[in-house]
Amino acid sequence: AIEFPRPNHPVVMTFANQKGGVGKTTSAVNIAAALALGGLKVVVIDIDPQGNASTALGAEHREGTPSIYEVLLDGIPLASVLQQCPEIPNLRVAPATLDLSGAEVELVDVNQREFLLQRTLADFLRHEPEVDYVIIDCPPSLGMLTLNAFVAATDVTIPIQAEYYALEGLSSLLRAIERIKNALNSSLRISNILVTMYDSRTNLSREVVQEVRNHFPQQLLSTPIPRSVRLSEAPSYSQTGVTYDPRSTGALAYRKAALQIARRFSGGN
Ligand code: ADP
Ligand code: MG
Fold first, then answer.
1. Where is the AAA domain (predicted)?
2. Are the CB atoms for 78 and 69 separated by under 8 Å?
3. What ipTM was estimated for this complex?
4. What rounded mean pLDDT belongs to the chain?
5. pTM value?
6. Does the 11-265 domain belong in CATH 3.30.200.20?
7. 224 CA from centroid of ligand 2 (Å)
């Protein structure tokens, strides 16, 4: 197996886009899996009540399972809810259950509610400074859970689906990130943009890549993720694409993208 370079400091990377269905979860779990298979120590935090990342990573997430809900709302340590991913040695998951679906409302009268995830992560990384990547999978909204992710993160990866109106909604996401950066987390940066569900046969896909490159020449990852049935069927086997069918085009693309990310954060390119 290839050894990926380690980052200079623990990277807390949130996968965000307030549009649903653009490939946030698929990208978060496959990049996380690829980084872990590259030898890095990875923790995935699922903060989407749907729990799709938990499913793909084979984590138990029935209601009542100790999850990120208890971490945020009851203040129990993150380490106490982590589950080892059965397929991937270096990867642990903080699962999300449907209990989390009430959190947006329950958090309304909690003090310092924007900082809950940041605090718990700071505590966790003090105990486990050897963790290389913490990857956060966000729900498709700009609510309190996503805000917690932005406040806790050092870096944002934005998946963009190669579709009509691909960049629609992007400017409001960028404005939100800019406001959070100014008010709550000055170290936040948009580090990576990943084009998903790319179809090289269509002009549209190529145009989306070109447009994203015009706006974000530094951030755009050079490997777009192709549309691949193997990626979409993997979660029904409690797997990521990279473990379910390592030779599929989707798996190979995610491994390339993950290597590029690892190189960026290790000071390479
Ligand atoms: P989000 O988390 O942004 O809502 P998902 O990652 O759940 O998006 O993806 C939405 C749907 O598209 C899922 O059914 C997923 O399996 C499918 N999907 C995501 N990426 C790909 C891809 N590259 N090829 C084929 N299907 C994909
Ligand atoms: Mg999702």
1. 12-190
2. no
3. 0.99
4. 95
5. 0.97
6. no
7. 18
